[in-house]
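Two records follow; treat each independently.
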Amino acid sequence: MIVTVCGSSRFKKEILAVAHDLAIQGNTVLAPTVFHHMEEEELPREVLLQLDNSHKEKIEMSDAIFVVNVNKYIGEGTYSDIDWAQRKKKQIYFLEQMEQPKQENAVEPESKVEEPTAVEEVNNESN
């Protein structure tokens, strides 16, 4: 299964750990490579837009996304990734079990988000 890992760039360590586990289980993993929040790096708006577009392309190439929602935190960018994945009919998994995601000013999801939460669940789907 091809899986794109999504989550706030402040969770670099957790994102890399999830990507590692998914890859070890035999999945093809696409993940962020720039963690500007974690590295306190100020990037120009154009670069941020380019990175976001590149991440959306990764989601399009994937069968599923895996949301790294540490302490159930999902920021604006990750909500956008979830919305994009739903529009593209991708499976959605969460590190920590979630109710239907809610956020002020967020677009209401078009369909119910699937509930599997563990990295192992993704591997079971690909077998």
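The next record belongs to a different protein.
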Amino acid sequence: MSNKVLCNGTVTGNIAIGRRFGRLKLQLDEVGSAAFLHALPGQFAEIDLCSAALPSRENIPAELADAAERQIILRRPFSFCSVRAGDDGLVEAEFLYSVLGPGTLRMRGLSEGDKLSLIGPLGNGFWVPEGKQYALLIAGGMGAPPLEHLAGFLKTEYPEIEVVVLAGAKSREDFPFRLEDTGKTGVETHVATDDGSAGFAGFVTDFARQWLGESDWEATETVIYSCGPEAMLAEVAKLAAEHDVNCQVSMERMMACGIGLCQSCAVEVRTNGEGETAYELCCKDGPVFDSGKVIFKC
């Protein structure tokens, strides 16, 4: 895990994506830039939104009108979808978010020049096992951000690895990115929707099973990376085991502190003892785990 720092970020962009999603860009100060420059895909930051203002009342969804008034006490965890250094040496970090409660509602109202406090980079990110030539990235809904970061990382740092991205959502409107932008990444990307409104009609895990069945990738040279709802991750882990492919999953838990103090983000894992399990912390030992190690709760 990288050395974490407390730093400040200045909003340089906040783009609304449909009704529920947004893409926030923060330029980090010198302290943050030094720490986040080498942040790994799958790591995250805890962002303080306590002092962020609510958007105007007409821009607050009716279903969040009551929740909007709740006081925010704890920081909120967000994984990166991009981390890059500018010409001035300062790092710009990008975060995708979904407006679900009082914290992310305040993110929607952030404007250029606003400042936020961050702690990070936190947790352990994805890793590249030796001898891999192929990487299949499987994202479900808001599991897209760390895999977007990973796709760019692999393209830059491991150009010899062939990368394919499969992204799934309930419907066309439920992707946290614009579908027309998928062709701009330089990475082969396919989408699946439960209702068939875009791409493959069905679960992204069904698409992945079909894709692997038709692929000529060697199992020993392939690694699967996945992030999304836990039920989806459990199915991806099962799929990886069926094909005898290495697989890493980024887990999600409620994280009150992000640094292992509150113990609220436990993940049950298998140990070396037969039938024995233990608990590790999503924020500190994860959020990325070997899929064969996780006891999924679904």
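Discussion point: The chain has five helices and 16 strands. How would you locate this feature using only the token line?
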